[in-house]
Amino acid sequence: MKKKTPLTDRVNVEPAIINGMTSTEANYIAVVSFALSLFVAVALFVITGFWPLLVLFCIGGPVLALWYGSLYLQTVKRNRPDAFYVQAVHIWLSKNGIGRCSFNRHNRFYEIGASINLNFNPPLDMKADSEDNASKNP
Hints:
Blueprint: E1 16-18, E2 21-22, H1 23-48, H2 52-77, H3 84-95, H4 126-136
Antiparallel strand pairs: 1-2
């Protein structure tokens, strides 16, 4: 009988619950969609006076948002490493001044304060070094 190999690379990854969406992602989507659904339901209740709209929108809105949100996240996460889009959102927020990013993100060069000898000759080849210096200084 063949032994099964453990998936050790999945130990630190949050498990998927709906179409590849994790429970943390589902919580974020559920809270935002509930707030939006409640706002729409209260507006419709004020206009129509029909109170079952509150229940319908507050239950149906988050359920539909979770389902279609999980399908969208499934396409976003395809062929990407774990937590790729979370890091992309953090970087986007910090670029727009909304949040603080914990990643190094700048387009400058690091300077170490030392000059670098870009001579590609072997280090013990003194003859080649002296010829290079002689050709530079006639």
